Amino acid sequence: MFERQPVIIRDPRVLAFDYVPQKLIHREEQLRSLSVLFRPLIEGGGASSAFLIGSVGTGKTATAKRFCTDILQSAFEKGFPMDYIYVNCRQNSTESSVLLRLIQHFDEGYPDRGFSVSEMLRTLKRHVEKRELKAIVILDEVDVLLKKGAEDLVYQLSRFNEEEMVSSASLSMIIISQEYVLDRLDQASISTLGRANIIRFSRYSRDELRDIVASRAEMALMPGSVREDSLDLIADIASEWGDARFAIELLEKSAMLAEEEGSQEVTAEMVREAKALTYSTITESRLEQLDLQHLLTLLAVTRCLKENAYVTTGKAERMYQLVAEEYGEKPRKHTQFWSYITDLSDQGLLETRVRGDPEGGRTTYISIANIPSRILRSKLEEMLNR
Ligand SMILES: Nc1ncnc2c1ncn2[C@@H]1O[C@H](COP(=O)(O)OP(=O)(O)OP(=O)(O)O)[C@@H](O)[C@H]1O
Ligand SMILES: [Mg+2]
């Protein structure tokens, strides 16, 4: 079964979605900011916190994990106990499941149910204290947790340090989100966590993506097995969103296609094929992250488009009002609607184009480029009916 030697992919693990490279190129600035914020901790002082904010695939998770792994190494060299615990709040989206995940880091056998949130908080604190640990908790995709009204957990965790832990233990936090979420926290947690500790992750430029994907190819693939113009094309395609994950997925899929076809190298045609294969899943994961009003706006646009290439914003807005009513929602005002369109366009789900019209005015036209409107429409309706 495994008779054929791979000729393209040398190390598939390097292409996995959760692989964290030794060096994160083009994130030096964010790593430096983290070092500055956490300097007191590594010098044996008290806890710190940071908020990482940026859109999809901009390296937030990878940067947080890289930073924690590196800081653990320094702590180890200095001889004090430090540890980090990563929690994905999409997978653990209630207060108790986050706490459970944190406690089970110390005690695998801790029962899944039967304890209240406050009991679990106490248990967690005891574990950290007992080990005199400088613990760092990464709360990734925290917006999911906050949208479910779990602000209090963030506050409770942030207070671990004020309440004077026994021993030199402390608990620091790295909070990650695609959107700005501080306004969802109350004043008390903001003041304990520090409002100033925001680190922003911008979308990667085309050239940055080119560097990222080239370096990943070098680690994962056989030397010389991917053509330079294939790397260019991957960077071009992924630059629409500035998303490194998409770029790496394109690399992985096209390398797999090359392998399957028994080709000696990854060609641009394979990249195009990989793009076609990847697009629908990418779109879907993006849709999952939209809130109700954005979904309604997008649905309105797809309903207008049908056979047409473009729709004017005026028409789209009238359709949006109908759609909102259909789903029992109050349509928002014009400026709000306009901001939804801008957001969707920023996320690559829509395209807008401004054109002059014969009367000398300017009209904005909206279109969707990469997926048939019919497919997008039925997907949106399915999500909204859920
Ligand atoms: N600067 C970089 N250098 C090398 N690889 C990177 C870099 N930034 C991101 N990556 C890789 O791109 C992929 C996506 O990055 P990551 O998961 O950190 O994004 P994210 O910002 O957390 O996205 P999301 O908001 O969707 O969770 C990962 O495989 C990561 O290793
Ligand atoms: Mg992430």
Count of structural domains: 3
Approximately what portion of the residues adopt beta-strand conformation? 5-15%
CATH architecture of the largest domain: 3-Layer(aba) Sandwich
CATH superfamily placement of the largest domain: P-loop containing nucleotide triphosphate hydrolases
Largest beta-sheet characterization: 5 strands, parallel
Radius of gyration: 24 Å
User: Class of the largest domain, according to the CATH hierarchy?
Assistant: Alpha Beta
Low-confidence stretches: none
Q: Measure the end-to-end span.
A: 43 Å
Average pLDDT score = 89
Q: At the third CATH level, what is the topology name of the largest domain? A: Rossmann fold
Tally of DSSP helical segments: 16
Assign a percent range to the helix content: 40-55%
* Molecules bound to protein: adenosine-5'-triphosphate, magnesium ion
User: What order do the strands of the largest sheet run in, or round the barrel if closed?
Assistant: 2-3-4-1-5
Number of strands: 8
The assigned structural class equals alpha/beta
Which overall shape is indicated by the principal axes computed on the Cα atoms?
globular
Element order: H for helix, E for strand: HHEHEHHEHHEHEHHHHHEHHEEH
Summarize the structure.
This protein is α/β, with parallel strands linked by helices. Helices cover 51% and strands 12% of the residues. The protein has helices spanning 28-37, 39-42, 60-78, 95-106, 117-130, 142-147, 151-158, 187-193, 206-220, 228-238, 244-260, 268-288, 292-305, 313-326, 334-346, 373-385; strands at residues 49-54, 82-88, 134-140, 170-177, 198-201, 311-312, 351-356, 362-367.
